Amino acid sequence: MSKEADFSTESYESPDCAKVFDGIWTISDAHRPALVSAFPECNNRSYIFRLKEPSNGPDFLLVMGVAGPKAVKAVQKLEQETKLSVKFVVSQGAQHHMYLDHWFEGFPAARILIPDRKIPVTRNGKALQEKYPDRWETTGGQTIPALEKYSDQLEFAIFDQVYGVKDEDWTSKCGSEPTQVNPMVWAFKFAMAKRDQLMDNVWTHHKASGLTIMEHNVEVWFTKEQHDEMPFPINQMMGAERFISALPEIFSWIEDPKIHAETWDKVLEWETKILCVYHMAPGVFHK
């Protein structure tokens, strides 16, 4: 395969994972952000990495990003095709817990790693802790200790010093229970809500390819055409073709600027050649 990543085979229509680099696959899954019906559909990628055990054990798969049921089925098929098992599934944090139940069900032997700031205190997080008490595993701090021994292949940085909106009864609980609040009311409540919940946003760097996956500190979501179709006031909240935060007001202040800056220092030391996010359209990435 080419020494450069190629995302051209990604599509919403395909039920299969797209191979974008040697040992990296993605699956594109269309969804509406925050499961709000007025939001236009955008991508919700999962990334799958083939990793080697440092102790000469068998290679395995790690899933980064917990998209919907389509992604679960695609990764199950990838397991069969590659004859490799999914050993880890990692949530990218913040709001990305809506479909976690499908990953617990779909990969009963995998370790599901969950950032510990927001997800554990959401309604869905609490329900999952009760449902899977023996498998519930959180990770805190600016990296993922359980994955440190693979840092020669894959690195992580967690931005966990920013505040956002708490899980509320007007927000979506999970994939099977999206918000029923009128989108205009949702937008008003979101705009007025306090930013008093510490969030966590997991960034990932694959050393062999130079692929860095961002999560929600900076974001590219919608094309100009998609943005033009958005109703007011949603179009005032979302960016179009801007390489900045898509929701600049989602975070209000930083808890510890020193820790936040140290996390940025780590990310900026990565030898990034390709920049991706979870919500870019299929086939889209930055070089």
Helix content: 10-25%
Rounded mean pLDDT is: 88
Q: N- to C-terminal separation?
A: 18 Å
- Overall number of strands: 15
Q: Over all CA atoms, what is the radius of gyration? A: 18 Å
Strand order of the largest sheet: 1-2-5-6-7-8-9
Strand-residue proportion: 15-25%
What is the number of helical segments per DSSP (H or I, 4+ residues)?
7
Poorly predicted segments: 243-249
Summarize the helix and strand pattern as letters.
Answer: EEEEEEHEHEHEEEHEEEHHHE
Output the structural class.
alpha/beta
Biggest sheet overview: 7 strands, mixed
Tell the overall outline: globular
Please tell me about this protein's structure.
- The structure is a single chain.
- 22% of the residues lie in helices and 21% in strands.
- It is globular, with a radius of gyration of 18 Å.
- A hairpin with an 8-residue loop joins strand 5 (46-51) and strand 6 (60-64).
- The protein has helices at 69-82, 100-106, 123-131, 183-192, 224-228, 234-237, 257-269, and strands at residues 18-21, 24-27, 30-31, 42-43, 46-51, 60-64, 86-90, 111-115, 137-139, 154-159, 163-165, 195-198, 201-206, 211-213, 274-276.
- Mean pLDDT is 88; it is low at 243-249.
- The two termini are 18 Å apart.
- A seven-stranded mixed sheet has the order 1-2-5-6-7-8-9, with helices on one face.
- By secondary structure, it is an alpha/beta fold.
- The longest helix has 14 residues, at 69-82.
- It contains seven helices and 15 strands.
